[in-house]
Design brief:
Elements lengths: L4 E5 L5 H11 L7 H7 L3 H5 L2 E5 L4 E8 L25 E9 L8 H15 L4 E7 L7 H6 L3 E6 L22 E7 L3
Parallel strand pairs: 4-5
Antiparallel strand pairs: 1-2, 2-3, 3-4, 5-7, 6-7
Length: about 190
């Protein structure tokens, strides 16, 4: 029997569930509970962020997306390149984080969560969306973004090195992973 899943607004899951998921999937203490609360404090960002639940209501993954100008609070201006975007900054939203439990990876849920977010941003009038994709991702997660029409704009070595957390790849701080800054159309 095939398991059923549903996409729900991120507000449908508790902050404790989201914190536990980020610790497991990204690395312990990548986000504090207060940071998660602040990330989701903007109404448009909250509206465009989603969780994936299985039929039992268990948390399977999430997509945190941020509206302009809210994302500017969370992304160092030196770590993105609006001068290369060929689009007014006010028309660009941000994919902050997408993570799925291993058992649902490769089934199209990342794309579905992202398209759901894009649909919200399209209704809000956004034209493009940018993301920082983890280059060293074991699942090569940047491919799903390429399939959505995203293009690599720039590489940012040691992107997460200033965050004191235990990267799932590096195991100890500082993280030396590379982020691929990617830009794509809103096609939700």
């Amino acid at each position: 029997m095939q398991q059923e899943f549903k996409i729900v607004n991120i507000e449908s899951v508790s902050l404790e569930q989201l914190k536990a998921a980020t610790d497991l999937l990204i690395g312990r203490d990548y986000y504090t509970a207060n940071e998660l609360k602040k990330l989701l404090s903007d109404k448009d960002s909250k509206a465009a962020s989603f969780a994936l639940l299985n039929g039992n209501g268990d948390f399977m993954g999430f997509r945190i997306s941020l509206a302009y100008p809210h994302y500017q609070e969370f992304v160092d201006a030196k770590k993105y390149s609006p001068d290369l975007w060929e689009c007014d900054l006010k028309n660009v939203a941000y994919f902050k984080s997408l993570f799925l439990l291993e058992e649902v990876r490769g089934q199209g849920w990342g794309t579905k969560l992202s398209k759901t977010s894009m649909g919200v941003f399209k209704k809000l009038g956004y034209k493009k969306i940018f993301a920082h994709s983890w280059k060293e991702s074991p699942s090569k997660s940047f491919y799903y973004l390429k399939n959505l029409g995203f293009q690599v704009i720039k590489e940012h070595p040691n992107f997460w090195s200033d965050i004191d957390y235990e990267c799932t790849r590096c195991k100890t701080p500082p993280c030396d992973c590379t982020a691929l800054e990617m830009l794509g159309p809103i096609n939700g």
